[in-house]
Amino acid sequence: MRLDKYLKISRIIKRRTVANEACDAGRVLVNGKSARASYDVKVGDTLEISLGAHTVKAEVLSVSEYATKDSAASMYRMLEE
User: Fold this and answer.
1) What is the pLDDT of residue 81?
2) Superfamily assignment of 3-80 in CATH?
């Protein structure tokens, strides 16, 4: 699944366009490297997202095309906030 879509489906970032812009600006790191919005997210990847003064680190636990509000939180595990 594309990185920008994963960020939206998992509800880490509210809108896909915002996720796409964050990737283009280099504010999203996957396994310590800057990643484009088209990066293919896999289970076990570590995401680091910088949104303003707030930085979020998360580990990908599952990848699915659809997620309800309740199941979205189980797609990742927060490492640092």
Assistant:
1) 63
2) RNA-binding S4 domain (3.10.290.10)
